[in-house]
Amino acid sequence: MSATSEIHDIMSRLGVEKSAYTGGDTPITSPVTGEEIARVTEISAADTKAAIDKAHDAFKAWRDVPAPRRGELVRLMGEELRAAKDDLGRIITIDVGKVTSEGLGEIQEMIDICDFATGLSRQLYGLTIATERPGHRMMEQWHPMGVVGVISAFNFPAAVWSWNAAIAFVCGNSVVWKPSEKTPLISLACKAVFDRAAARFGDAPDNLLTLLIGDKDVGEVLVDHPRVPVLSATGSTRMGREVAPRVAKRFGRSILELGGNNAGIVCPSADQNMALAAIAFGAMGTAGQRCTSQRRAFVHSSIYDEFVPRLKAAYQSVKIGSPLTTDALVGPLIDKRAADGMAKALEDAKAAGGTVTGGEEVDAGHSGTYYRRPAIVEMPEHAGIVCEETFAPILYVMRYDDLDDAIDMQNGVGAGLSSTIFTLDMREAEQFLSAAGSDCGIANVNIGTSGAEIGGAFGGEKETGGGRESGSDAWKAYMRRATNTINYSRDLPLAQGVSFDID
Hints:
By secondary structure, the protein is α/β, with parallel strands linked by helices. It has helices at about 5-15, 20, 45-60, 65-85, 85-95, 100-120, 160-170, 185-200, 215-225, 235-250, 270-285, 300-315, 335-350, 405-410, 425-435, and strands spanning about 25-30, 35-40, 130, 135-145, 145-150, 175-180, 210, 230-235, 255, 260-265, 295-300, 355-360, 375-380, 395-400, 415, 420, 440-445, 455-460, 460, 470, 480-485. The strands form 6 sheets. A 7-stranded mixed sheet has the order 12-13-14-11-10-16-17, sandwiched between helices.
């Protein structure tokens, strides 16, 4: 069966209207086979504004629904995701090029965040605060914000939406979602799954979830619209530099998940088998197209000549090919632009004295596709192209002698998303996690840079944007805080002992 036929069968099973993926003017091509698999209709900027207004009306109805009741809708969404997991995972494989286990893993992540958000709906706690005034009580409450805009990227086309949407819904907000133009099919499927959950729920307002398939103009409306108080945007640092000041100009709140030039340090005491497996997945998984992909490795000089050849052997043995017809662990790059970027980065690395292993084009039997063998590049110094993020499976490897120097090199890039250290030395591990250690939003010990769990807040510092999504108390970004003081006495004492007597 062709990828086109399979996509159409799956979309039909999920209840997506055929016209949504066959009747449009914009062609969608699978990076796995190079064939056109769908045609979608893009929304105009003018219609986007009208859609946001309708989403605002939905918010006004939804904010009055008790939070545990809102959690019931998200619980039902999780049930529908479980029922559709195989189909949704297959769409991601065809639409994005992820291998089967990674496509299914992304849907599992969506199920997990629904479970988390359902519990959260009964835990939107505020504090009771000690007050200096007798006969008074001071407390804080958390209230919904309004319309939450979500701009997601191609590499996690469903999970990132769910991180935002599940939390936003239980917090009492409506959601307007603009997916990547490269991967709109999974968003159509997720919308159908949500609509089934909403039908079972019974009284969810219309337009609680709005899907906007469109180009940059649509995203700009979301960025600038005054009725979108919260905007979560996932993409490049370049995109974030445009989005952040525009949202700030209208005093909106942005949750930015931008670039990541993630590193791992391999210490003399490291469990080398563990480090090898973690780095291999971190650097090669999803063909290096994760924001948390490992892109740099600092290996201690005492073990470099033992460890790096083993890593090279793993790279040479990994299978690259179609995730639809093979058991390959590495699928295609998303498009020609990504392949060209990889080739240019490798050229720059060679010009700077790097030694490249891998990086060759792999013939997967499909024209118009971009399969590449992951590359290891041994670099003489931490400079130039090493300090730039290339969204492709390139791992730059460098020696180090002193841990302080390795940490400085790890921190010496613009991005600050994910990091790790492989060591059995408690002092090294604790130093890495201390204020003098990694400056990233995610700092790990003896696990890879990628594969974050939904229970922790996800995001990074510096050019990664500073936003947090998913677990912990990231929910607070989707709500507004109100500090309340109630006077139940017969007097009116002022704070700080101020006296203001009126005759």
